[in-house]
Write a structure and sequence with these properties.
single chain; 386 residues; alpha/beta; Rossmann fold; SH3 type barrels; Elongation Factor Tu (Ef-tu), domain 3; 3 domains; 6-stranded antiparallel barrel; 5-stranded parallel β-sheet; 8 helices; 17 strands; 29% strand
Length: 386
């Protein structure tokens, strides 16, 4: 299986202005690639409400300036690609729609799929690039026997980002480079200092880029009150219902309180319920059809079975028979042993060896065989152990 990873090829590096993408660009240039830096302009903070909070925020003026400065210092061509309309249409609309459906989405997965490996890759090809590179902590290998490209965990277990990349196709993996995949964060910062990169000590961005103050309640209240943040795609949505109050119920159905709008809640949440019950209560389910939030005890959060849809297979063409593997149901989740069963072409069920805490519809479930990503999907629902 030919890898076709010629180091004299042109590569577009997605540059956020952080230390990871900056070092990725420098390393690829030193390896002999013809490097082009592209910064995606995805969001206008002046229209998003809230405060940015730090210069690490993606798409901030500081971030774009840092990317441009790095490229100028290393004689790398740099472009800013305006993808605001596409970001609103693909990422923001999905984010809002999922929350209004009582689910908790992972916008980073959608952004990777739609913005980086579709919109940015299209631009990269127009610039004559053979590859797209990012600063993700993940690795790509070829499986010559099965003629497949494999996505593997990054060497640094604390920074591994393979969970967010399960959506990548074989064609996309063939044309992707992850220069930092075999490095630890400490090694990255050390090399950045060695190369005198201005951003060597720059902090990592933690917040969702379009909610820079990390205040989901403020974001949805802005939508509900008619301040649509100048988001064209939101304006085009047929309905964006007001975030009205509704009942908080025990799993039995007993009403014990009132919520301030169900999109403000997520499965596993404890804080902010406003209920004095004498014992800890957690959100166990959200039902938009009832405008209700259900709560229960810590034990009620544990489920042993889930179903998932919107599947993408990487290590295998598709799932034909039951498969033993491990699975992550959120980014910081420790991989848990499970049995995966095919249901129909775009749906699987997972039965874990042990019940898992707060399986959340809308989040990604990613399947692993050791360090290799088998594939993944979007969690549809969960069930308690029989």
């Amino acid at each position: 299986m030919a890898s076709n990873r010629n180091k004299s090829s042109t590569v577009v590096v997605a540059m956020s202005g952080g230390v990871d993408s900056s070092l990725a660009a420098v390393l690829l240039q030193q390896q002999g690639f013809e490097v082009i830096g592209v910064t995606m302009h995805l969001w206008d903070y002046g229209t998003s409400g809230g405060n940015i909070g730090s210069d690490t925020a993606c798409c901030s003026v500081e971030a774009m300036s840092d990317a441009r400065t790095l490229c100028q210092s290393w004689n790398i061509p740099h472009y800013v690609l305006d993808l605001r309309a596409e970001f609103e249409k693909e990422v923001i609309t999905d984010f809002v729609s999922e929350y209004l459906s009582g689910r908790t989405p992972n916008p980073c997965v959608i952004c990777n799929q739609k913005m980086k490996w579709e919109a940015l890759w299209t631009k990269a090809k127009q610039l004559g690039a053979s590859f797209l590179a990012t600063g993700h902590y993940a690795q790509i290998e070829t499986d010559a026997k099965n003629e497949r490209y494999l996505l593997k965990r990054g060497t640094d277990e604390r920074k591994d980002q393979s969970y967010f990349l399960w959506i990548l196709t074989q064609h996309q993996l063939q044309h992707t480079l992850f220069p930092l995949g075999s490095m630890t964060k400490e090694e990255v910062r050390g090399l950045a200092k060695k190369h005198h990169l201005k951003v060597a000590e720059k902090g990592d961005s933690q917040e969702i880029c379009f909610i820079p103050d990390n205040n989901y309640r403020r974001f949805f209240q802005d939508l509900a009150q008619g301040n649509r943040l100048k988001i064209r795609s939101i304006k085009e949505m047929s309905t964006v219902p007001a975030m009205s109050t509704g009942p908080i119920k025990y799993r039995s159905g007993e009403i014990i309180g009132e919520h301030s709008g169900y999109p403000f809640y997520t499965v596993g949440q404890r804080k902010g319920l406003g209920i004095a019950a004498g014992r800890p209560l957690y959100v166990t389910r959200i039902d938009p059809s009832e405008n209700a939030v259900y709560v229960g005890s810590e034990e009620d959060l544990y489920c042993q079975t889930l179903s998932a849809t919107h599947l993408n297979w990487i290590a295998i063409p598709h799932l034909k028979e039951p498969l033993r593997c491990t699975a992550k149901i959120r980014y910081r989740h420790h991989p848990a042993k499970t049995l995966v069963n095919p249901i129909i072409d775009d749906r699987i069920s997972l039965h874990f060896d042990e019940p898992q805490r707060a399986i959340t519809p809308g989040q990604s479930v990613v399947l692993y065989n050791g360090d290799v990503v088998i594939g993944g999907g979007i969690i549809d629902n969960a069930a308690t152990a029989a």
